[in-house]
Automatic annotation (TrEMBL):
GO biological process, one term: protein insertion into mitochondrial inner membrane
Pfam families referenced in this protein's UniProt entry, alphabetically: Romo1
Keyword Transmembrane: yes
Keyword match Transmembrane helix: yes
UniProt-recorded name of the protein: Reactive mitochondrial oxygen species modulator 1-domain-containing protein
Predominant place of localization: membrane
UniProt superkingdom: Eukaryota
Family membership noted in the UniProt record: Belongs to the MGR2 family.
Subcellular location: Membrane
Transmembrane segments: 21-44, 56-75
Amino acid sequence: MPAQPGAQEPSVFQKLRMGMLTGGLVGLTIGFIFGNFAIISGGAGRGKGYFPTLSTYMLSSGATFAFFMSIGTVIRTDGLTMQEWAAQQVREGRAIGMPGVVGAQAVRERMERREKP
């Protein structure tokens, strides 16, 4: 889907929030799976019961994943915008679907030699 005219890149805070939400949801899911496995294999632990133990697993893994995913998302997306990156790829002749630099020069030469209608 092509970018909408006038569309802007998300801000750093929006990227941070998106990474935090993604990491939190992944962490809660992983905590649910591993927490259930730990409870089934080793018991609920020291008189706490099933739900307090499971919630501890889920919250600790959710917070950990959210923290690292939020930082990782900002670091990974910091730099060129998509439009700047695409323009750079085209300038350097490395855009997907374009021939390499040597191939691009050969294509240009063929197009220049071609008869014009």
